[in-house]
Design a protein that fits this description.
CATH superfamily of the largest domain: VC0802-like
Strand content: 25-35%
Order of helices and strands: EEEHEEEEEEHEEHEHEEH
CATH topology of the largest domain: VC0802-like
CATH class of the largest domain: Alpha Beta
Oligomer: single chain
Number of helices: 5
Length: 299
């Protein structure tokens, strides 16, 4: 277990303090010797009590997620033999009220862009695991969803909606024998390999066992299962959506939109974070429906 230490230093500097009119300017000190000027955000505490030129905690939270994501990306690129030339991410965090109506960082959206030069004398190319626009979202302190307040076009008012296509999460369709212990063997196999299940379910259909489970590491899960003789029928990308639990009718509205666009929802279940997971027969159209829903229901 590694420790990561930082020191925060503030001084009253002669201010009255109890009148609440004291400077929020302070310093962050790190073990490498770097000292960063910090302050509350001027959007939270007006100038001159905040220091506009300093870094505020909200910005630091956003950049920490962006930086961590970039390092993850670079490590994967290096392992796959891609020579990364540049990387840029204009990350955006949004403060608002969470589902408990408390002030919080309700979304962080990353917009990474990278270019790479192929190695080994091959032609120059561009590579990224993010398609056109990858959304990796986070809620403090773990990755979060992007939220939208629904207000029109059949969307109940004040309804937080999340829709995005997660290119890291994969749904695996798994064939299981219809007998006691088959599911236990699958779970034990994944556990020994350190692979976590993020959501899903298992059923008996026509006398055969079929499971759909969500994995953050789809390739690793598939490799582990197949090495143990457990047959993986399919591995697919998913659409992820959060609906407000206490507002009825949203599933019907979303499903109707999909149907009208000719999109068949083949698999639907919830993950461990109470998000709706959809596997559809036409990913491009399904994503278009989700994005349209978001635009109409967003504020």
């Amino acid at each position: 277990m590694a420790e990561h230490k930082a020191t925060v230093v503030w001084s009253r500097a002669g201010a009255a303090f109890i009148d609440n009119r004291y400077s929020r300017g302070h310093r962050w000190q790190f073990d490498g010797g770097i000292e960063v000027p910090a302050s509350s955000s001027p959007q939270v505490v007006p100038l001159p009590l905040s220091v506009a030129a300093a870094v505020d905690p909200e910005e630091a939270f956003v950049v920490s997620l962006s930086s961590c994501h970039m390092l993850w990306f670079l490590s994967i690129a290096a392992k796959r033999g891609y020579l990364i030339e540049s990387y840029r991410d204009e990350a955006v965090g949004v403060m608002g009220k969470d589902m408990s109506e408390k002030q919080a960082m309700t979304s962080v959206t990353l917009h990474p862009r990278s270019t790479s030069a192929a190695t080994g004398g091959r032609r120059r190319t561009k590579w990224s695991p993010f398609t056109t626009r990858h959304m990796r979202t986070a809620s403090s302190p773990a990755p979060s969803r992007r939220r939208y307040n629904a207000s029109r076009s059949g969307c109940p008012p004040d309804t937080p909606i999340t829709t995005y296509m997660d290119h890291t999460m994969k749904d695996l369709a798994i064939a299981l024998e219809n007998r006691p212990g088959a599911l236990a063997e699958m779970g034990e196999t994944l556990g020994r390999a350190g692979v976590s299940v993020e959501g899903g379910g298992a059923w008996v259909v026509g006398g055969a066992g079929v499971a759909h489970f969500l994995f953050a590491e789809g390739a690793a899960a598939r490799k582990t299962l197949e090495a143990a003789g457990i047959r993986v029928l399919d591995e697919r990308e998913v659409l992820v959506q959060r609906l407000k639990q206490d507002v009825p009718g949203q599933l019907g509205l979303l499903s109707r939109r999909m149907a009208e666009a000719g999109v068949n929802i083949e698999v639907l279940y919830s993950d461990h974070n109470h998000q709706l997971i959809l596997v559809v027969d036409d990913l491009a159209r399904g994503r278009a429906v989700s994005e349209a829903w978001t635009r109409e229901c967003g504020s």
